[in-house]
Amino acid sequence: MSDAAADPSRRNWIAITCGAGAVGGVAVAVPFISTFTPSERAKAAGAPVTVDISAIKPGEKLTVEWRGKPVWIVRRTPEQLESLKKTESQVADPNSDRKTYPTPEYAKNQYRSIKPEVFVGVGICSHLGCSPSDRFVPGAQPSLPDDWQGGFLCPCHGSTFDLAGRVFKNKPAPDNLEVPPHMYLSDTVVMIGDDKKA
Ligand code: FES
């Protein structure tokens, strides 16, 4: 039996991601899944995942898998951090008070992160589980408002999130993107799935 067959949550994510890819984004999702080694699959079953983030350049995103979910690590630029002040009044839950996906205390801030520049979030839309696409370039563009500051767009039903994973008001998605438990083992190594020492 394949891992995908053994783990319904993972199978669903793959199916949804590929479905979303039909309208854009599959080029990222498929190579990512195909690169998993057996040990990575074992980690995906539930163990914490340790990630060296030193190679992520400002403005770039790395995706890893934890518990069958895509977890994004984005190193935000100073401009991207600044954009969170502008989106503050446009998002539905700016202080991450909603409880469906409780935000860890250490991420209950405007950046929704431990280090301001590094966002760690689960890349699954809180509406029906599609994986949103990167829309990091600010400005007017299809499916986005003219004052777009950069963030994520869910291709399934149009929910948008800022660069802290905060959902914009009046969108189908009811909640911000989940911030998973995580902690830094060093300046450049983050453990996802465990925060007992944070
Ligand atoms: S699943 Fe994201 S908007 Fe519906």
Notable traits:
198 residues; alpha+beta; 9 strands; 22% helix; globular; disordered N terminus
Number of helical elements: 5
Distance between the termini: 37 Å
**How does the major sheet shape up?**
3 strands, antiparallel
Q: What is the strand tally?
A: 9
Give helix % range. 10-25%
- Strand line-up of the largest beta sheet: 1-9-8
- CA-atom Rg in angstroms: 16 Å
Shape: globular
Please state the structural category: alpha+beta
> Which stretches are poorly predicted, pLDDT < 50 over at least 5 residues?
1-34
Bound molecules: FE2/S2 (inorganic) cluster
Q: State the order of secondary-structure elements, H for helix, E for strand.
A: HHHHEEEHEEEEEE
β-strand percent reads 15-25%
Structure write-up:
- By secondary structure, this protein is an alpha+beta fold.
- The protein is built from five helices and nine strands; from the N terminus they run H-H-H-H-E-E-E-H-E-E-E-E-E-E.
- The strands form three sheets. It has a three-stranded antiparallel beta sheet, with no helix packed on it. A three-stranded antiparallel beta sheet has the order 2-3-4. A three-stranded antiparallel beta sheet has the order 5-6-7.
- A hairpin with a 4-residue loop joins strand 8 and strand 9 (189-192).
- It starts with a helix and ends in a 6-residue tail after the last strand.
- Mean pLDDT is 85; it is low at 1-34.
- FE2/S2 (inorganic) cluster binds at residues 125, 127-130, 154, 156-159, 172-173.
